[in-house]
Amino acid sequence: MFQINENYQKLPGSYLFSTIAKKVNAYQQANPDKNIIRLGIGDVTQPLAPAIIDALHKSVDEMGHAETFRGYAPDLGYEFLRKAIVDNDYKQRGCQVEIDEVFISDGAKSDSGNIQEIFAESNRIAVCDPVYPVYVDSNVMAGRTGTYDKGTETWSNVIYMPCTAENNFVPEFPKETPDMIYLCLPNNPTGTTLTKDQLQQWVDYANRVGAVIIYDAAYEAYISEDDVAHSIYECEGARTCAIELRSFSKNAGFTGVRLGFTVVPKDLKCGDVSLNAMWARRHGTKFNGAPYIVQRAGEAVYSDEGKAQLKEQVAYYMRNAKTIKEGLKDAGYTVFGGVNAPYIWLKTPDQMTSWEFFDYLLENANVVGTPGSGFGPSGEGYFRLTAFGNYENTLKALERIKAL
Ligand code: MLT
What we know:
Blueprint: H1 7-10, H2 16-30, E1 37-38, H3 50-63, H4 79-90, E2 102-105, H5 108-114, E3 125-129, H6 133-141, E4 148-149, E5 154-155, E6 158-162, E7 180-184, H7 196-209, E8 212-216, E9 242-247, H8 249-252, E10 260-263, E11 269-270, E12 273-274, H9 275-286, H10 292-300, H11 304-330, E13 335-337, E14 343-347, H12 354-365, E15 367-368, E16 370-371, E17 382-386, H13 391-402
Helix pairs in contact: 3-10, 4-10, 5-6, 11-13
Bound molecules: D-malate.
């Protein structure tokens, strides 16, 4: 008789955003006349930029002719895209990253869930609390997290690094030494970030204790302040301790198109073993490459037109962030984030729990957000709103919240 991976049985509830979608759909069904504004999941709303659409059309046409048709993509990604990434995201920022250190994928969510596979089951992970749920859940599935305590909503073998208003959302070095440290900066869900100096301290710490940093930079396009690093490789020593995950979802609106990449430097080693070679082996075995047309679309992100159009798109969402942040402040809320990231993190009013506020907002303002406690115990009493809505809906949502 076959056995299942029992670790899956340990996962409490469903994936956060699935739970929210179910709740919202049930509410909509019961109240078909209500116009719900969704500022929950960080999904983009603006159409793909013209430069990207052009690249898609062109590459679709290529697929229709025998001379230019493409079959399987190279499993690690087309060189034209890897080169554009290296030149624009790294060389231009003074970071040393080579083409064969960039692995193209179908998105940062898959990579952030899969990357743990190349590490031992005995490794201890450290996460910020609150945290993007994929990091913890994927380690639960791999059997790395110990047992779940319903009371504290924590796993016995996970090191939690609380990030709250009390410590300015800056994680402190943990008392116990982790093997793998997940950092998402600018941060999802709090919308806050670290300065480059603070990040450098994390790199130094990881090198000192022999830990690897899994660095999720999905929101780097939203950085507006000068002293914030766009890549962890801006920090000295990061090549020996850090893997960086990047996404095209948030900077270029690819949530439905799917494209991302992971950088594994060749200097990152465990003894003599190269993690770059391990990830190449894993990628080659389990992944058949992102579609050609999507990689061409990704290349267009780095064209002059693409860059100019996407700068405008990011500015559009950041205007929403400002609108939400200032609107909530005027209404008496305590708010964080929204300066270097498209997320606003607010304190729930009147001591409401995160889920109480979720229901309150849904029922009384018909606005959907994300309960902070869904991201971890230190998220209790907080709530996340995304700036990825359209401007008109964002204004309307704010009016409704102010009128409560
Ligand atoms: C979020 O809302 O946290 C993100 O959109 C989820 C994701 O990027 O997978």
